């Protein structure tokens, strides 16, 4: 990791990126072909990108049941516990909207309605993320979405991951298709002969998936820009450095484009470097037995270790990096957390590991990345809902507003707006 003491704003926001223009052009080409050739394009990219020769995109209920039967009881139980916790957390997010009486005869209110057709993208390359299916399908069901369509890649034409199939059955998804990458996003947005278009697309993915979601957002709503995973871990002299190393590696193993940052909150520069040394020693030791060592090593090499000498610099680093996952392992984490503005999901204290949020504590792990936590929230129940506004105005209510409306409409030069009020007031 590159060490930076008291980093400038420019140093904080620097992150290693892939060639965005190259990705943008490749994704545009894929989506254009999917729009034109539909299923034929999906078969082409399945073969070219995933070595999937299957001639059927649909995963039947029978296939799901066959694969789900392969899941051992301990994993079934773990999935069910995670699902239960996710359901509990998201059910509590139901909002009751009060009616607001603006004046005599004027009542305003809002009501939630489900987004009818939603598409869920589940990454399925080197790590099939069935946990993402739980995180998205469960709140979609609670919201009352009428149709839940899932797409996920089948690598080498193999049957889908058994745990993913078990999760799909548990969540009662309506349809599931074997297609991944940017082509899956294009299919969900524009529809093909087999895959229906949806009203909103959800789900994390690599840079190609994230770029595809951005491009189709002109015609189909998306949840957020949720690309390669990232974590920032804040520690001080009293932190557990083995815990910090483990949290950094938990994100580093996702993929070579994952982003990690360590922040040492310490007023003594020499001690801060010693702390980083300790963390790096633990990283080396833990990497020895990590199955995805090669991927994680690349990410660690591209990572950075910031040193914040005071709280002001610490908060500057945190808010400008705007982490997807922010882990506060420092002594005064509760006080620091109150002052954090830009972070998608916070993990407070030494035992709040990021893995808990990824799998089983109940919070949603579909979160904004790449600085988008400055303006976007993670997935919640509200992500699957629309809010309709209502107003009920009696004659006496319109009378109290009539002069105001007519004056404002006149100032904008919109006479018909004025007349809509006047004609009512004249009783015609």
Give a written overview of the molecule.
- It is a single chain.
- The protein has 428 residues and is of the alpha/beta class.
- The chain has 3 domains: 2-16 and 228-375, Rossmann fold; 38-222, 3-Layer(aba) Sandwich (Rossmann fold), CATH 3.40.50; 394-425, no CATH class.
- 46% of the residues lie in helices and 18% in strands.
- Helix 14 (333-339) links the parallel strand 12 (323-328) and strand 13 (343-348).
- Helix 4 packs across helix 7 and helix 5 crosses helix 7 (162-171).
Q: TL;DR of this structure?
A:
With 428 residues, the protein is an alpha/beta fold.
Q: What would the keywords be for this entry?
A:
single chain, 428 residues, alpha/beta, Rossmann fold, 5-stranded parallel sheet, globular
**End-to-end separation:** 76 Å
Number of helices: 17
Most strands sheet:
6 strands, parallel
Q: What name is given to the CATH topology of the largest domain?
A: Rossmann fold
Q: Poorly predicted ranges (pLDDT <50, ≥5 residues)?
A: none
CATH architecture label of the largest domain: 3-Layer(aba) Sandwich
Instruction: Provide the number of structural domains.
Output: 3
List the helices and strands and how they pair.
Blueprint: E1 2-5, H1 9-13, H2 20-37, H3 39-50, H4 61-68, H5 73-91, E2 100-103, E3 106-114, E4 117-121, H6 130-143, E5 147-152, H7 162-171, E6 175-178, H8 181-190, E7 200-202, H9 207-216, E8 221-222, E9 230-235, H10 241-252, E10 259-265, H11 269-287, H12 293-302, E11 304-308, H13 311-321, E12 323-328, H14 333-339, E13 343-348, H15 354-359, E14 385-393, H16 395-411, H17 415-425
Parallel strand pairs: 1-11, 4-5, 4-7, 5-6, 7-8, 9-10, 9-12, 10-11, 12-13
Antiparallel strand pairs: 2-3, 3-14
């Amino acid at each position: 990791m590159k060490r930076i003491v008291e980093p400038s704003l420019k140093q904080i926001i620097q992150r290693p990126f892939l060639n965005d223009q190259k990705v943008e052009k490749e994704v545009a080409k894929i989506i254009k072909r999917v729009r034109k050739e539909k299923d034929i394009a999906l078969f082409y990219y399945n073969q070219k990108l995933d070595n999937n020769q299957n001639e059927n995109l649909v995963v039947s209920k029978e296939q799901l049941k066959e694969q789900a039967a392969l899941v051992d009881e301990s994993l079934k139980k773990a999935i069910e516990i995670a699902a239960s916790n996710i359901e509990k957390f998201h059910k509590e997010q139901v909002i009751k909207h009060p009616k607001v009486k603006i004046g005599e005869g004027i009542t305003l209110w809002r009501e939630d309605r489900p987004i009818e057709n939603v598409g869920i993208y589940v990454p399925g390359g080197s790590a099939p993320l069935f946990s993402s299916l739980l995180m998205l399908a469960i709140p979609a069901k609670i919201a009352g979405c009428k149709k839940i369509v899932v797409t996920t890649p089948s690598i080498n034409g193999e049957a889908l991951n058994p745990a993913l199939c078990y999760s799909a059955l548990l969540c009662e998804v309506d349809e599931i298709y074997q297609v991944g990458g940017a082509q899956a996003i294009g299919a969900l947005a524009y529809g093909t002969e087999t895959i229906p278009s949806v009203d909103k697309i959800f789900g994390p993915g690599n840079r190609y998936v994230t770029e595809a979601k951005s491009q189709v957002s002109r015609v189909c709503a998306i949840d957020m820009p949720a690309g390669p995973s990232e974590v920032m871990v804040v520690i001080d002299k009293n932190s557990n450095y083995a815990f910090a190393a483990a949290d950094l590696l938990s994100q580093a193993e996702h993929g070579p484009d994952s982003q990690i940052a360590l922040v040492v909150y310490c007023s003594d520069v020499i001690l801060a470097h010693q702390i980083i040394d300790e963390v790096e020693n633990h990283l080396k030791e833990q990497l020895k037995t990590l199955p995805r060592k090669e991927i994680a090593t690349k990410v660690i090499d591209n990572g950075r270790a910031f040193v914040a000498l005071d709280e002001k610099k610490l908060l500057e680093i945190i808010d400008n990096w705007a982490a997807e996952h922010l882990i506060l392992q420092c002594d005064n984490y509760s006080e620091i957390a109150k002052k954090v503005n830009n972070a998608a999901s916070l993990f407070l204290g030494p035992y709040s590991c990021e893995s808990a949020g990824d799998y089983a504590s109940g919070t949603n792990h579909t979160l904004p990345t790449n600085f988008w936590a400055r303006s976007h929230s993670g997935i919640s129940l509200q992500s699957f809902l629309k809010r309709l506004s209502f107003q009920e105005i009696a004659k006496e209510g319109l009378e109290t507003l009539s002069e105001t409306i007519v004056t404002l409409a006149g100032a904008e030069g919109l006479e018909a707006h004025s007349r809509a009020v006047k004609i009512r007031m004249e009783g015609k």
